[in-house]
Write a structure and sequence with these properties.
This protein has 1 helix and 10 strands; from the N terminus they run αββββββββββ. By secondary structure, it is mostly beta strands. The protein has 2 domains: 2-66, Adenine nucleotide alpha hydrolases-like domains (SH3 type barrels, Roll); 71-149, Elongation Factor Tu (Ef-tu), domain 3 (Beta Barrel), CATH 2.40.30.10. The strands form 2 sheets. A 6-stranded antiparallel beta barrel has the order 5-8-7-6-9-10. The chain has a 4-stranded mixed beta sheet with strand order 2-1-4-3, with no helix packed on it. A hairpin with a 4-residue loop joins β3 (52-57) and β4.
Amino acid sequence: DYIGFIERTTKKMPNGKFVDVNGNVLGEHSGVYNYTVGQRKGLGIASNKPLFVVDIDVKRNIIVLGDDEDTLGDTLIASNLNWIMFEKLEKEMRVTAKIRYGAKEAGCTIFPMSDNKVKVVFDIPQRAITPGQSVVFYDNDYVVGGGVIE
């Protein structure tokens, strides 16, 4: 019970605003910890079309809602990297990647950055790239490494 744990171990998060991708206020949410990027159900917002969580701005206590296509992204930055096949990524590399448990592997290119980070550019946009989730890189059947999505 994730929400119960958060409520028991932290101070109550204040309600905040739901806004659309243009910044228009759509309603009030019950605390950012109750939502995740890509979520559609349980938002409590009446709309003539399905709405999805596109972004969560914890500092401003705002949740951005949009269409399903607004959840798509083709690029991410990963940090806290752990390489299996080598010590450090020295040059760009073609791999496949999974951005969550149960996701299908997707073709991408990873580019080394400073500070033990990589830029990941997917061939096809991915749904709900979520900060804090793990990304795992594969070369055929072998795990190359992984990191945490920023």
